[in-house]
Amino acid sequence: MRHPVFIPLFATLIILSACDRSGEADLEQALRDINVVDETNLNDVMLTVGDPDEAVNYFANANASDPGRIDLQRGLALSLIRARRVTEAVAAWQTVTAHPDATDHDRLNLADAYIRGNLWDEAAATLNTIPPTFENFERYRLEAMVADSRQQWDKADSFYETAVGLTTRPAPVYNNWGFSKLTRGDYPAAERLFSDALRFNPALFTAKNNLVLARGAQRNYTLPVVTMTQVERAQLLHTMALTAIKQNDVTIGKSLLNDAINTHPQYFDAAVRALEALENNAVN
């Protein structure tokens, strides 16, 4: 005769309770994983398309809620750079680089922040903490700018040349290099480098404006053949006019100011004021 097997009720409850706790733990872990993914996506959005000041507030609050996380510290530092709050960005990058998990990329970002804040000696000292074996485009770009600030022209040229070879988007480097040549008075070289910048990025207005400065410094007062909007054309004529006036080619400058005023699709206040000032001086 077979006897029925009875499982005590309390044992059944223990088993069920254990299963429930296991399920709850799995659920909590899954929710944590989802939150991490959502947070990562939100962080990425804040660092790219979000409003810079909103991003600063977001990462400042996140840091306050979860201090010590280097990813949030980096997010705050990057957002401050985007918001052009350089002094705060320097302090934020100093915090990042003091973290045990800081990388050479973080130290490059600190050097970049120093340069934006005109703290050239600090930038140079920070770059010197990075091993020479750490070679990338950003490092050489920053090294070139520091060399420029110290008028170490040969070093600057060497660093710019290396930086150009390490990126597929060299337009800003060519523009910086050209401006370096412009400040040295090597106007033909500057003109070539600004043209190179526009060859890689025809929309880079800073390079267009600098190209006009380089041509004007050689008393070449014709606009370069580059892609430009009507507003840009007026702005470039204005730049060319001021360059001519600075070199005492006043008649040419007045003509260029008139061209700028007539070219601009709206009222061009800066050009009008410059022309009025010239005419008042002529009367007086």
The largest β sheet comes out as: none
Helix count? 14
The assigned structural class equals mainly alpha
Mean pLDDT: 87
- Radius of gyration, rounded? 30 Å
Give the percentage of residues in beta strands.
under 5%
List how many beta strands DSSP finds.
0
- Residue stretches low in confidence (pLDDT < 50, at least 5 long) are 1-20, 30-38
Order of helices and strands, N to C? HHHHHHHHHHHHHH
Question: How does the overall form come out from the CA principal axes?
Answer: globular
Give the end-to-end Cα distance, rounded to a whole number of Å.
130 Å
Q: What portion of residues is helical?
A: over 70%
Polypeptide structure, described:
The protein is mainly alpha-helical and 284 residues long. The protein has helices at residues 9-48, 52-65, 70-82, 86-97, 104-116, 120-128, 137-149, 153-165, 171-184, 187-200, 205-217, 230-246, 250-263, 269-283.
What characteristics describe this protein?
284 residues, Lipoprotein, putative, globular, mainly alpha, 14 helices, single chain
Q: Layout of helices and strands, plus pairs?
A:
Elements: H1 9-48, H2 52-65, H3 70-82, H4 86-97, H5 104-116, H6 120-128, H7 137-149, H8 153-165, H9 171-184, H10 187-200, H11 205-217, H12 230-246, H13 250-263, H14 269-283
Helix pairs in contact: 2-3, 3-4, 4-5, 5-6, 5-7, 6-7, 7-8, 7-9, 8-9, 9-10, 9-11, 10-11, 11-12, 12-13, 13-14
